[in-house]
Design a protein that fits this description.
The structure is a single chain. The protein is α/β, with parallel strands linked by helices. The protein has three domains: about 180 residues, Rossmann fold; about 45 residues, no CATH class; about 200 residues, Nucleotidyltransferase, domain 5 (2-Layer Sandwich), CATH 3.30.420.240. Helices cover about 35% and strands about 20% of the residues. It is elongated, with a radius of gyration of 27 Å. The N and C termini lie far apart (about 85 Å).
């Protein structure tokens, strides 16, 4: 509290404007944040006529913060008589100074016109949309001395507003960014920590010293998590604040994948042997053309081209929880006219790639691609079938995994491709064959599938052929 409210500018205004409080579950962060909201409603931080707002992912979570605040007012001597509680509006009113505290949810529509003096963004990792965040964040600048408090547990994935905010706070904490207005309060365990070590638990759960969360309850969760991978990931995320990847059963460690994010210069690859993998979408999902080039004897460069329908792009962004609009503006994805991907744009891109690079094969799953394959083949382009069944894709997945784990896949850090890899859940059959599938219905893995196809064809295309050997004779063929 001293770090937030102590430092002041010469004009008396508070230096700290934003607080990021990253705490595991059970450490009473919502209670603390509700107390701060009341400090700005009834305490010395109140502004006459001010709006104090707590916002959560849904109405149920919003009600938790509201009930916490009301509970504090009802048990604080001298405060109960000054409070007007409007249950139907989730609002607490300080009539004397015309200040009110209100709890709202991110699924309750926009809140344009707000002029908040204090905003609590509760459990930001669970917010599915950023509309309310943008409205409240921009509203805070209307009031001098306003304060934003983000109180959240660790989330999953990087394509969300919570990760952006927490990652910025981390950079401030490390000194990479100088921002005196930001106060990072981050309790999070290292990704590679021993999650069974109770010393780690105490380091990231400051409430344990005071009896919350319950240490015996944590021990029970840890015992069960030893035998259930899904529970182990939930324990690491929610109780140790390890920010996880999207999939509970990830294909590869995304930290290892990220080691291949060095820029890939396509100009340097012009004229080099290239293999394409194409994953066409059947509806409004993503379509991807991925190119792979050999990098030495056992490595690869890859680069994707993504396509999506242009109609309702913002609604699709909200549905999938990723910034399609921003990606389109930055050139990472091409929206095509209509409400489904226009395959003519995809075919044009493939032809352009064949002009630019030495394309040896263009691999398609023929299910949706028969017409495009025939058109390309008629023009002498090397379109080939690569069905997405287990027999074909299992070796492709294995080769792609080998390249990533061996730090031999360079992908340039393409954000849409990373999101696709982050979404992968792996299904392994009784024979040990692993194939990709989506962890959730809204997840997209098209880019990862196309990359697996391209890498597999590059691996097969790089092998020496017996037909190129001086030792080969026609009679060696087995009929």
């Amino acid at each position: 509290m001293r770090r937030i409210y102590g430092p002041r500018h010469e004009n008396g205004l508070r230096i700290v404007k934003s607080v990021v409080l990253l705490l595991p579950r059970g450490n009473r962060k919502t209670s603390l944040a509700a107390a701060l909201a009341l400090l700005h409603t009834f305490g010395p931080e109140r502004l006459p006529g001010g709006e104090v707002i707590s916002a959560a992912s849904d109405r149920k979570q919003a009600r938790i913060a509201f009930d916490e605040a009301v509970g504090i007012t009802q048990t604080t001597p001298g405060l109960k008589q000054r409070v007007s509680v409007l249950e139907y509006r989730n609002r607490v009113v300080n009539s004397k100074y015309r200040v009110f505290y209100e709890s709202i949810s991110s699924d309750a529509g926009t809140q344009h016109g707000r002029t908040p003096a204090f905003v609590l963004a509760d459990e930001l990792h669970a917010w599915k949309r950023r509309d309310l965040w943008d409205v409240l964040r921009s509203g805070l600048v209307k009031t001098a001395g306003s304060l934003l408090v983000v109180a959240t547990t660790a989330g999953r994935g990087q394509e969300n507003i919570a990760f952006d905010i927490v990652d910025y706070a981390r950079k401030v904490a490390r000194g990479e960014i100088s921002d005196p207005s930001m106060l990072p309060i981050l309790y999070e365990a290292d990704r590679d920590c021993d999650w069974t070590d109770e010393a780690v638990w105490h380091a990231v759960n400051p409430g344990l010293a005071h009896g919350y969360p319950d240490i015996e309850g944590l021990r029970q969760l840890a015992r069960e998590a030893r035998h259930r991978p899904g529970d182990r990931e939930a324990f690491r995320q929610l109780n140790l604040n390890v920010w996880l990847d999207h999939s509970a059963d990830p294909f590869v460690d995304m930290a290892i994948y990220d080691e291949g994010a060095a820029p890939v210069s396509l100009d340097d690859l012009a004229g080099e042997p290239c293999w394409l993998g194409v994953d066409l979408s059947s509806n409004g999902d993503l379509t991807c053309v991925a190119a792979a080039w050999r990098d030495g004897d056992d490595g690869y460069f890859v680069h994707p081209w993504f396509f999506c329908p242009k109609d309702n792009l913002r609604l699709r962004s909200e549905r999938d929880g990723v910034p399609y609009v921003t990606w389109a503006e930055q050139g990472y994805i091409e929206p095509t006219p209509g409400n489904v991907v226009d395959f003519r744009h995809v075919e044009t891109t493939i032809r352009d790639l064949c002009d630019r690079f030495d394309v040896r094969e263009i691999a398609f799953d023929p299910h949706l691609a028969r017409n495009m394959m025939n058109t390309l083949a008629e023009d002498g382009l090397p379109a080939v079938e690569m069905r997405q069944g287990v027999a074909t894709m299992a070796p492709a997945v294995k080769e792609l995994e080998r390249a990533i784990v061996g730090r031999r896949l360079m992908h340039g850090g393409h954000p849409v491709l990373r999101w696709n890899f982050d979404n992968i859940a792996v299904h392994t059959d009784s024979a040990g064959n692993a194939v990709f599938h989506k962890g959730r219905s809204r997840d997209r893995i098209d880019g990862a599938v196309a990359c697996a196809m391209a890498v597999a064809r590059a691996a097969a295309g790089s092998l020496p052929s017996i037909y190129d050997s001086d030792q080969w004779k026609p009679e060696m063929m087995v009929m």
